[in-house]
Specification:
It is a single chain. The chain is mainly alpha-helical. It has a domain of 62 residues. It is built from three helices and no strands. Helix 2 runs antiparallel to helix 3. The N and C termini lie far apart (36 Å).
Length: 97
Amino acid sequence: MKKILSILVLIAVLALPLTVSSAADITDVLWEIADWLKTLVYALAVIMFIYAGILFLTSSGNVETLGKAKKTIFYGVIGLAIALLAEALKAAVVGWV
């Protein structure tokens, strides 16, 4: 898990142009990183829901597999809620400043 996270961070750093010359540029770069991460979280939530659906369909009444599918949906919803709350917080901060 740590390797995957470090690879994602490395890709994020290399994918964004980080030429910063003023404080306004720094905030723009930070907002771009936040938007990129938000999109990544939304995509991961969709992938988790698809995976959980496949687990439900292929469980054949197996209690362990059903439990795993329910946990996957639960964690996907929690991640999606956190991403939506982060977006609301970002909008509140921008509106306040």
